[in-house]
Amino acid sequence: MEMLRSLFPEEQVRYYDWEGNSLHWGASLRQADLTARRLADEVERLAPEARGRLTLVGHSLGGRIVTRVLAELSRRHLEIRQGVLLGAAIPYDDDDLSQINLASREPVLNFINPDDVLLKYCYGPFGGEAHPALGANGILVPQENYQEHVVSSALLARVDFHLPVMHFSLIKRIANHHAKFYLHCWKELLLGTSKAEEQRVVIPQERLNLTIPTLGGHLLWSELESCNGWRLQKNLLTGHCRILDAQNTRRAWGRESTMRSAFQKVRRQLERQGNP
Question: Which of 59, 85, 131, 220 is the most exposed, fewest CB within 10 Å of its CB?
Fold first, then answer.
């Protein structure tokens, strides 16, 4: 809250309290979705001028709540100033994601971290969600009035904590789902101090992937698409697909339909980086 208030000193910053501390993940998900419906009702009751000044910011399950609220507002033909998602714990192909841009006057900001330990390694296997988290993968299909920003690994070193244990780089890497890392990325974007530290290619994952070297797929693999050395391949025996980078390292694998969409996202990023 202190960081948000420092970023927006002239705005009224309010914390929306909800019961999300259940030890049962399924109960937390249900409570988040119920909270989203209640919050959407509260936003609808606001005067149009108040809605026009409202920005909703959500981290983790809070990002799930903001997504649900924006989608519900779009169904009610209502609009707020902006929605901001920080490491959102919601499937990256959730149906509501196709509508969030319609309820935000300014572009929806989605801050993601492909190396987020909690979202990458725990969200699916232990959380019971069918598909990977938006906060670690971003959306598959581009949409208007939406911006995606990637938390760089180099940013971790610039974020300070009062807790002494968080001074260790290893602890920071393990605890990198903390909201402060995402907020710091937003802060640098607002202040124009973002550093061009790396041109990361975000590859949406369908299944947990071990980044391993391959022989390039000369046997038992057919090539479906390629772009600047990156390749989408299909296994001739199993039918599953994989994405290899220019060094023949497997960066993602899964069903053909999902990997085709993921590869299109890879292609768009390579083209933006000047690597058509």
Answer: 220
